[in-house]
Amino acid sequence: MSEEAEEFDLKALEKRMQGALNVLKQEFSGMRTGRASASLLDPISVNAYGTRMPINQVATVSVPEPRMISVQVWDKSNVSAVEKAIRESDLGLNPVVDGTTLRLPIPEMNEERRRELAKVCAKYAEQARVAVRNVRRDGMEQLKKQEKEGIIGKDEHHALADDVQALTDKYIGEIDAALADKEKEIMQV
């Protein structure tokens, strides 16, 4: 490999693919399995003060009971926005408003609800796969450009392209494994 070819940074591509996997795992941690968890509300953002904000920046989220989440909204004017954001999320929760506190009872999960959650997980996994494929596409375009400019040769291009594809396959496999684990966890009664 020539010294100029090191401009192509496989580590940077891997870091971006790992980022997509990390986002997926964070979204999965918010998917409930019948137990209350403060991280359940992490993916929710609220329209507050003219912008979208994570729920934890406008309220305190706690778990006082195993099947209850409590959301203490700091500013009374944001209570309806927080309630609306929770209702519109894919989580299927119905907040009970009590002043500036929202109580979210976690219902028992039935078969239909488990299947819905599994579909939401599959949607998150597909978004992660698309993100990984986009990183691969960027890497391949960078390789083509470097070959066209004469920075790398045809053989080097093909070797690096194989490395990029192997990295893509690895991360797609990890995404599929994470999805399978989460679906198994959700469908477990």
TrEMBL record:
GO terms for cellular component: cytosol. The lineage of its organism: Bacteria, Pseudomonadati, Pseudomonadota, Alphaproteobacteria, Hyphomicrobiales. Its main location: cytoplasm. Residues 24-187 form the Ribosome recycling factor domain. InterPro entries: Ribosome_recyc_fac, Ribosome_recyc_fac_dom, RRF_sf. Responsible for the release of ribosomes from messenger RNA at the termination of protein biosynthesis. May increase the efficiency of translation by recycling ribosomes from one round of translation to another. Belongs to the RRF family. The gene is frr. It is found in: Cytoplasm. One of its GO terms (molecular function) is ribosomal large subunit binding. It comes from Dichotomicrobium thermohalophilum. This is Ribosome-recycling factor. The keyword Cytoplasm applies.
